[in-house]
Sequence to fold (251 residues):
Amino acid sequence: MAKKLVIGNWKMNPSGVAQAVRLIRAIGKGVRRYKKAEVAVALPHAFLHLKLPSSLRKGAQDLFYGKGGAFTGEVSGGMVKNLGARYVLVGHSERRALGDTEEIVNRKMRAAIAAGLVPVLCVGETARDGESHYLHRVKEELKSALKRLSRAALARVVVAYEPVWAIGEKAKGALPPEEALHMNLFIRKAFSDVAGEQAARKLKVLYGGSVTPANAGAFLAEGKMDGILVGRESLDSKRFLAIVRAAHLAR
Ligand code: PGA
Fold:
């Protein structure tokens, strides 16, 4: 059985390199015990140059779609890749809130693939409604992000389902884990419309939004999720490692 994937999204934290190094060391040491999980940390660009222990994969939180040139303040996929990253988050709701449109998300997906990165495409509705319009939103986000990707490119994509209302401190709490399986199957079906059944079967679908050591296992077991995208709890090595442990033990 494939390893469950746990990605910690540090967001714009911590403020200093010394704290980042300490956190990497603590997590890197702890995860060695949990070999049945694959663990990555999505670092701020400012810390991408740091060396990670072999037990940890490196990820970035964003990339720019241009290859190089006059784009002040931006960081290309090639730069991210050259700093040793394997994963890059694309279309995180906090990026979308800062102006990343569906067109931009699609360009970033293609740039990530072109750079040899594994894009972790984040999709999720901002609110739920009684008429399932939110499902339509999730499907549209997914399809527009995957436009003009080749079959080979589609086979590299990881999807993170993150209902926006469940993310961050102001969240109403996580998705009830019993609903995770439904969303998992829904996303896989929508992905299969674009990429074909075989690719959809192999697709990794992660859940993100208020994941804690207490609920992580349920998303993986009941929700049959292939992994977890962790925000706040990834900044506390003990709690993050407890989530990794749940992934290690998940069947
Ligand atoms: P959270 O964030 O775990 O703090 O809710 C998840 C995310 O934004 O990926």
Remarks:
- Residues 9, 162, 167-168, 171, 208-211, 229-232 surround 2-phosphoglycolic acid (CB under 6 Å).
- The chain has a mean pLDDT of 97.
